[in-house]
Amino acid sequence: MHAQAELPDQVADEACARVGNDRHRLLDVLLTVQHRCRWIAPAAIDRIAARLGLTALAVRGVASFYSFLSLEPRGHITIRLCDDIIDRHAGYDGVLAAFEDALGIRLGGISADGAVSLDATPCIGLCDQAPAAMVNDVVLAGLTPERARDAARALKAGARPEDLVSPVFDSLSAHERVRAAVANNIRLSGDVLLGEVPREAGLRRALALTPEQIIAAITASGLRGCGGAGFPAGRKWEAAAREAAARRFIICNADEGEPGTFKDRVLLTERPHLLIEGMTIAARAVGAREGILYLRGEYAYLRDHLEAVLAERRAAGLLGVGILGTPGFDFDIRLQLGAGAYICGEEGALISSCEGLRGEPKTRPPFPVQRGYLGFPTVVNSVETLCHAARILDRGPEWFFAMGTPGSHGTKLFSVSGDCRAPGIYELPYGVSVQELLHLAGAEDAAAVQVGGPSGVMIGRDSFHRQLSFDDLATGGAIIVFSGARNILEIVDYYLSFFVHESCGYCTPCRVGNVFLREAIAKFRNGHANAEDVAYLRSLSATIIETSRCGLGTTSPNPVLSTLAHFPLVYSVVTKPSDDGLQATFDIQSAIENARGIAKRRSFVFDRDFSQ
Fold first, then answer.
1. Which of 302, 325, 397, 459 could cross-link to 463 by cystine, CB 3.0-4.6 Å?
2. Same domain for 39 and 12
């Protein structure tokens, strides 16, 4: 069932040589070793450290940061079953049970022969076809217990993960393999990205303009970053262009790790040339010669497809030296694969990851447009933003500006999933109401909608009239629908567990505060909370927001705060009154258990059976 193991030090040598022993490519090296050896062995760590001029401790620190890298042996075939809240509602438990039964192992385990391991992982960008799983770099969507059992039996019988996608997988092109694995579920095509798009029209138009004119067009269009923050794209490009520097970089952030978001997956499949065209236009505007496409590890199945697109464009003179015969216009792109870290969706953490470091956010200022990748001015834009930029250069800024609302121009791709009849992608102008989108998706029974994923806001029926725009309900694209049958506190608990898991651990408010928030929510779920606990939730959330270093910490309390605001009855019905203001259900034994472990001794005061 599995290939003969390779020697980790030899694999490490080859991986380092492939990247020219560049320490900034450490993540690529580790991914190669993980892929071929199925873990990062001590021998590999020592060899990598020697070849790249790093300490073994530094290499181990990076390897331990990313969830798709392991310092312990994993199976030659690693199954990662998505345990997002949407997957749980769609039948995750049954699929997990089928895998466990057919493989003869439990979740987190590895088979006796080391052939297969079974793990859980957060959202993998397939919420529109949940439950889903990754089998090495292959994805399986729309799983049922029967399909899971059949897949497990096939793997045990010697099938490759690729064979689960198609019996003729090897004869398919890179793009055909992607389409065989995943349906993109485009429910509504709009006028900008998913309708008819001419090839290279924007790039050819850009070649007739000066860099200043390109930036002016992007600014006049009103284009704002589509990843959720909404920073004006023209201002970002202008800031990078005016910095005095020997090198500049364009980075595409294709690390859409926000649970419930999968629009970039669709654009990477359906509009890869438009994306690369947008990156090339940005390079022309700011004077960059080098670009990086940072692809989240969960989208590894798209890697060969994207590499084929890059190769095709190089052959056509659309990348490389003298693009389209233009002297001095040199620009090329390398693909950087991530390794399972939600925090790398934050641009500073993403840059750290590209530099071969732990994916930890950088201190601001300076901002990336001033000193970003390797200390040079760097523009980081999302997939959707760069695709929009190419279309703006093609059709003109006035065309784009006329769509949407006064503060939110153009169209937006909405990733709709959850309790609806037609989950998928909808391209609509900014300003559409939540109710209109729910109607299109067949979600008439919606009782709650999570706008913008866990870091966004959850609203109830009394807010469905609100607009999806930067002026009202801003979103990076995720629209998660919940019917009245769902437990709001269960959803909040899951999202908090997600943030606890994904915190980089750099700052205490985020690392510890989210744990405390989840413990507090558990009191409500168990019926042990009182009015003081509601105040505690608000106070702790405010502390986390005010003192955290990056966007993860400043948005992680949102599941609590938004449900307190929009679903107060959910909390009130499980809150017990307290006459004396004391928390009668406080369990001192549980509270000091961690302290016992740290101190390695018992408590003279609180351990009733303590004896000297």
1. 459
2. yes
Write phi, then psi, for 52 (nearest 5 degrees): -100, 0
Helix (H) or strand (E) holding 565: helix 558-566
Nearest-angstrom CA–CA distance, 426 and 188: 5
Residue range 98-129, pLDDT digits in tens: 999 999 999 999 999 999 999 999 999 999 99
CATH number for the domain spanning 567: value is 1.20.1440.230
- Is residue 75 in a domain? no
Q: Which residues contact 571 (CB under 8 A, 6 or more apart)?
A: 524, 529, 534, 563, 564
How do residues 220-266 score in pLDDT, each as one tens digit? 999 999 987 789 999 999 999 999 999 999 999 999 999 999 999 99
pLDDT in tens, 37-48: 999 999 999 999
Angstrom CA distances, 302 to 178, 271, 331, 365, 423, stand at 7, 13, 22, 34, 21
Q: Is 55 exposed, middle or buried (0-12, 13-18, 19+ CB in 10 A)?
A: exposed
Which residue carries 């694995």 as its tokens? 181
* pLDDT, tens digit (0-9, with 9 covering 90-100), for 141-156: 999 999 999 999 999 9
Q: Are residues 477 and 500 in the same domain?
A: no
Q: Does the N-terminal peptide bond of residue 131 adopt cis geometry, omega within 30 degrees of 0? A: yes
Q: Please state, in angstroms and rounded to a whole number, the distance separating the CA atoms of residues 582 and 236.
A: 52
**The model's pTM:** 0.92
Residue 592, Cβ density class (10 Å: 0-12 exposed, 13-18 middle, ≥19 buried): middle
State which of 485, 500, 524 marks the end of a domain.
485
Examine the domain organization and report whether 313 and 413 are in the same domain: no
Gap between the Cα atoms of 252 and 302, Å rounded:
15
C-alpha span between 321 and 409 (Å, rounded): 34
DSSP state of 76: S
Query: Which residue, chain included where needed, has tokens 């067949």?
Result: 442
Cα separation, 569 vs 217, in Å, equals 49
Determine the Cα–Cα distance for residues 17 and 442; give it in Å rounded to an integer.
53
Domain containing 444: what range? 408-485
384 with 293, same domain: the answer is yes
